[in-house]
């Protein structure tokens, strides 16, 4: 049976966050270029990437991060409601990603379906939300996951701290 918490799983979370943040950076580049300096190829590339990137991130978070943090539920009784809230955020982010996919395709094809201001607002709303979600996970849940690892494998993380 695979360990619920491991250094490999911590690395998976870190890699997932890095992929999402790179996506956010690219989306910010698009938003900053609106209306007249937009890389249409980048829009088309991001349209293809946004939903798979978000879906993969959610899968890793729910399978790895949330499962590991749940092991601390006796210590943190409200963690279940926090995880439930984050699951709802995942649902909302995926719905937003699907809308973003359509808008990016439209911009990439040179047939924008909304004003540049509305497109910029949509892009910024998405990437700022994703960045806040990641910040919360990095500040709160990842340390809890590390705590769970220390609980299951005492001294394991301390060895790498020196």
Describe this structure in words.
- By secondary structure, the protein is mostly helical.
- Helices cover 80% and strands 0% of the residues.
- The chain has five helices and no strands.
- It has helices at residues 7-33, 40-70, 79-108, 116-152, 158-161.
- Helix 2 (40-70) packs antiparallel against helix 3 and helix 3 (79-108) runs antiparallel to helix 4 (116-152).
- The longest helix has 37 residues, at 116-152.
- The radius of gyration is 18 Å and the shape is elongated.
- The two termini are 30 Å apart.
- The model is unreliable at 157-162 (pLDDT under 50).
- Please give the share of residues in helix: over 70%
Which blocks of ≥5 consecutive residues have pLDDT under 50?
157-162
Number of helices: 5
Identify the overall geometry. elongated
Mean pLDDT: 87
The count of strands amounts to: 0
| Rg | 18 Å
| N-C termini distance | 30 Å
> What is the chains' assembly state?
single chain
- Profile the largest sheet: none
SSE order in H/E notation? HHHHH
By secondary-structure content and strand pairing, the structural class works out as mainly alpha
Q: Which band does the percent of strand residues land in?
A: under 5%
Topology, element by element:
Elements: H1 7-33, H2 40-70, H3 79-108, H4 116-152, H5 158-161
Helix pairs in contact: 1-2, 1-4, 2-3, 2-4, 3-4
Quick recap of the structure?
By secondary structure, the chain is mainly alpha-helical.
């Amino acid at each position: 049976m695979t360990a619920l918490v491991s250094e490999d799983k911590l690395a998976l979370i870190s890699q997932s966050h890095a992929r999402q943040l790179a996506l956010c950076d690219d989306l910010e580049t698009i938003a900053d270029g609106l209306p007249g300096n937009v890389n249409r190829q980048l829009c088309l590339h991001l349209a293809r990437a946004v939903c798979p990137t978000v879906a993969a991130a959610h899968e890793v978070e729910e399978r790895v991060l949330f499962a590991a943090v749940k092991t601390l539920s006796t210590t943190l009784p409200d963690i279940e409601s926090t995880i439930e809230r984050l699951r709802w955020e995942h649902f909302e982010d995926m719905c937003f990603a699907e809308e973003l996919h359509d808008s990016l395709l439209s911009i990439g094809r040179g047939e924008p379906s909304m004003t540049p201001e509305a497109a910029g607002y949509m892009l910024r709303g998405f990437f700022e939300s994703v960045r806040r979600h990641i910040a919360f996970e990095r500040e709160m849940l990842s340390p809890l996951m590390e705590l769970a690892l220390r609980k299951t494998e005492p001294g394991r993380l301390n060895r790498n701290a020196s």
